[in-house]
Amino acid sequence: MSAISPVVLILGSGPNIGQAVARLFGSKGYKVALASRSVKEAESTDNHLNIPSDFSKIDDVVNAFTKVKQVFGPPSVVVHNVSASSLSPPDDPFALSYEEFNKDTTINIHSAFIAAQQAVKSFTELPSTAARTFIYTGNVLNVQILPRFISQGVGKSGGAHMIWAASAVYKDKGYKFYYADERKIDGSPKYRVDGDAHAELFWDLANAKAQGPWMQTFVKGVGYQKFD
């Protein structure tokens, strides 16, 4: 009997990071589930599942997990690659409407919380040999202020805190949690990030035997680098 293929669920299937992660994991034998507003369910295949989802709706997060479990089984790697940002004036961050702020934080924090909650439930169904890894695509906004991006900054800071807590609490169970933030070699923010570099890091994190530093600041071609 052939081994059951592991499953990666990618929430947010943008053309850069999301697609790069899907390509790499798919090439390594994973069944790939992509959940986003842009995917078409009819284009699913035996090894690739598209789940139309709007992550401003929390129920869609739960539905994505339900669907992938029904079709492929519980995911052993979950990537929260969803982000939202409504720009405010640089000199008046509170000019942003509450409606915009609420929508962005729902996507950046609430959907991530539900995704992590669902991921833990999935991990309990998997053997200890499975990757059991949750990765949140972050950026520098959990440690740096960019006033125009106040809603995304609040979101990424909230996401980072959740990942930090989870990495400490669940490591003894073998569940790994990471916040990924690509930087330039000098540690400064990289605003045009590299999808393939993210995919390579995510692959390494998924295959690591134990929890590493929860805040994965990394450089393309170098890997994890600790910056002040």
TrEMBL record:
Q: Which domain of life is it from?
A: Eukaryota
Alphabetized SUPFAM superfamilies for the sequence: NAD(P)-binding Rossmann-fold domains (SSF51735)
Q: Please name the GO terms that the record assigns under molecular function.
A: oxidoreductase activity
For this protein, the record's InterPro entries field holds:
NAD(P)-bd_dom_sf, SDR_fam
Whose protein is this, by species?
Kwoniella dejecticola CBS 10117
Query: Is this entry keyworded ATP-binding?
Result: no
Task: Spell out the protein name for this chain.
Answer: Short-chain dehydrogenase
Q: Does the keyword Oxidoreductase apply?
A: yes
Task: Provide the alphabetized UniProt keywords.
Answer: Oxidoreductase
Similarity comment: family membership: Belongs to the short-chain dehydrogenases/reductases (SDR) family.
**One Pfam family from the UniProt entry?**
adh_short
